[in-house]
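REQUEST FORM: STRUCTURE PREDICTION
Request ID: SP-0412
Submitted by: Lab K.M.
Chain count: 1
Length (residues): 225
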Amino acid sequence: MNQIDTRIGISRRYLHDEVAERMRELIFSGEMEPKSRINETELTERFGISRTPLREAIKILATEGLLELLPNRGARVASISEREIEEMMEVIAGLEATAGDLACRSISDAEIAAIQADHDAMVVAWRAGDEAGYFSNNRRIHEAIMAAARNAILGGLYQSLSGRIQRSRYRAHQTPEQWARAMSEHEQMIVLLRARDGAALAHLLREHIRGKKPVIAASYGVAPA
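STATUS: Completed
RESULT:
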């Protein structure tokens, strides 16, 4: 696990909850990768805590399915099976489809302009072969559509579920054909947002997310049918 953050102490009443949140961020960002072992010594030093709140946090994340407890051997970041990828992507596709439909009812011209700006930056990155820039802007576009839905429950469900595959979704390698298809679909998203065509945008987003299944599955070493 790479240490990219400075050590920041934690001081809250429910220390283990804060530790669990910090660890979620590391998992969702991809710094703690699937199947990687939890180094308790490293984390206690990094967070400036004792082992007790860390172990309580590990138990919390294990109940959420983010960590796997290993008998007498600590814990590791949970892997994701072929079936889980299939099921998660279907639910995420449904959430994004719903967000697209709702967003078309309330999105402002300013929000569309911001999405257009991110899209334009994504195009520049794509043409330059800048994968990091491409996926960063890609992520902002999807999150902006979700925010424009104005539905906190929907957004919470989306954030909770998509976090487990966030790194692979936005950073996994794509073939030139997959990349070109994604760009074309993003172009159409802008058109449908401007038209406020919720039904069509919902359909496009659902198929757009489903199209990512092979890419995400490959990043975890599985190959869904």
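NOTES: The chain has two domains: 15-77, 82-219.
Reviewed by: T.R.
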